[in-house]
Amino acid sequence: MPELRPFQELLEDYVRHVSGQRCSIPAFRRASEGWETEILLFSIEPPAPEFGGLRHLAARVYPWPWQADRVKAEFLLLRGLFETGYPVPRVVRFEPDASLLGGPFFVMEQVRGSLLGYKYTKGTEQEKRDVSVVFGDLLARLHRIDPAPFLGEGAAWRDRRSALTSLEPEILRSFLEPSSIARELEPIFVWMEEHRPVLEGGETCLLHGDFHLWNIMLAEDEKGTLGGLPRPVVVDWGQAGLGDPRHDIAQSMLLSKTQNMPGVAESCLTAYQYASGRHLEHLEVFEILALARRLGATLVCLADGPETLGLRPELVPFLLKRLNHLDGLCNLLEQQSSIRLPGVRGLLARWASTETVR
């Protein structure tokens, strides 16, 4: 990705081209970088109809030119969700041309505010309860949305198969089995086959794919309906698709546990079950699958390169410094399941000694 000043120059050129030379960018910064994308926050003066008349905008830039279809799917999903009234950022432009900012991207409104996770970690006991209710309500609302309008020609996904998230076993296998470390991951495949009756055949609905308190923003100056909290807005939809609703709640519970936020998983689960009217059975199996996906995807990224999974190239040095975290994920997986990964332990030991991967 370009450095700070070139990025701003590229954005200024882009905005002026789209708006007919009418606009400038008086404010610009790069937001925190995720595994998949880079977020550029900027303001334009004066607001232009080509950008929805919005002054504060964000560009979500994917790293690889061949990801244009994936970017378009996320753009169309957000547009459809916004039209249903679900609280997501308003999207205004999709740009498949990777030469503009270094990768395909879309432009959306910039949600200005704080993260719901901070409200939980720093809040009073009442605020923690309010946060859990917001979480449960938002996830239940998402799972109630009819997925049919998001499938077909001109929609986010052409068919059900292309919409399935990587939390679904058949999709997870499709990118883990062809990897160079498939042999080391074999115990995960065996476990998935043994638990196929539980993991397959359930309800299918829209999933966020990475739903947790740190992907929900509280929009400043926009009061919500609960406990005086600002209006919540759900962000970061790169892993969204179709699947069993238990995937979303299991992924969220896993992240809460690995981020050392005691009490979050249980309170959010209770709030979700109340808001959705669902009683989730076999959730522990879905938690194990979420953990296996997290570990497997990270290992494939290190072994075969981030491009394999469409992740940012800068991830490898970051992950090499966190091999102890991967060892912790192995420990957690072994504690919660029958899966044993001696081959993965060998990989981690080798990478730790050489500090180099492909």
Quick structural summary:
By secondary structure, the chain is of the alpha+beta class.
Helix fraction by DSSP (H/I, runs of at least 4): 40-55%
Mean pLDDT across residues? 90
Query: How many β-strand stretches?
Result: 10
Radius of gyration, in angstroms, nearest whole number: 21 Å
Count of helix runs:
14
Order of helices and strands: HEEEHEEEHHHHHHEEEEHHHHHH
CATH topology type of the largest domain: Aminoglycoside 3'-phosphotransferase, Chain: A, domain 2
Shape: globular
> Uncertain segments of ≥5 residues (pLDDT<50)?
none
Your description of this structure?
The chain is α+β, with helices and mostly antiparallel strands and about 350 residues long. It has two domains: about 5-110, Phosphorylase Kinase, domain 1, CATH 3.30.200.20; about 115-355, Aminoglycoside phosphotransferase (APH), C-terminal lobe (Aminoglycoside 3'-phosphotransferase, Chain: A, domain 2, Alpha-Beta Complex), CATH 3.90.1200.10. Helices cover about 45% and strands about 15% of the residues. It has 14 helices and ten strands. It has helices at about 5-20, 70-85, 115-120, 125-145, 160-165, 170-175, 185-195, 195-200, 245-260, 265-275, 285-305, 315-320, 325-335, 340-355; strands at about 25-30, 40-45, 55-60, 90-95, 105-110, 115, 205, 215-225, 230-235, 240-245. The strands form three sheets. It has a five-stranded antiparallel sheet with strand order 1-2-3-5-4, with helices on both faces. It has a three-stranded antiparallel sheet with strand order 6-8-9. A two-stranded antiparallel sheet has the order 7-10. A hairpin with a 6-residue loop joins β8 (about 215-225) and β9. α4 (about 125-145) crosses α10 (about 265-275) and α6 packs parallel to α11. The chain starts with a helix and ends with a helix.
